[in-house]
Amino acid sequence: MFTYTRFEKARIIGARALQIAMGAPILIDVPEGITPLEAALLEFEKGIIPLTVIRPS
């Protein structure tokens, strides 16, 4: 698995939380009443967030 820096991790989770808050479907089963940030964090931990990081060579 790819290792992200703490800045990449924060950016990925923040971007995904914003998508979820704006109505994007959550890609995993989550309990009722969970916040978009918590849902994005769970997706990140499972490795299914549909975002990539491109680093310069």
Please provide a brief summary of the model:
This protein has helices spanning 6-21, 36-46. It is mainly α.
Description:
With 57 residues, the chain is an all-alpha fold. Helix content is 47%, strand content 0%. It is built from two helices and no strands. The protein is elongated. Helix 1 crosses helix 2. It has helices at 6-21, 36-46. It has a single domain, classed as Eukaryotic RPB6 RNA polymerase subunit (Alpha-Beta Complex).
Compute the separation of the termini in Å: 19 Å
What is the level-2 CATH architecture name? Alpha-Beta Complex
Radius of gyration: 12 Å
Q: What is the residue-averaged pLDDT? A: 93
CATH secondary-structure class = Alpha Beta
How many distinct folded domains?
1
The proportion of residues forming helix, as a percent range, comes to 40-55%
Give me the count of strands: 0
**Which superfamily, in CATH terms, is the homologous superfamily?**
RNA polymerase subunit, RPB6/omega
Shape: elongated
> What percentage of amino acids are in beta strands?
under 5%
> What is the overall number of helices?
2
Q: Give the topology string: H per helix, E per strand.
A: HH
Low-confidence stretches: none
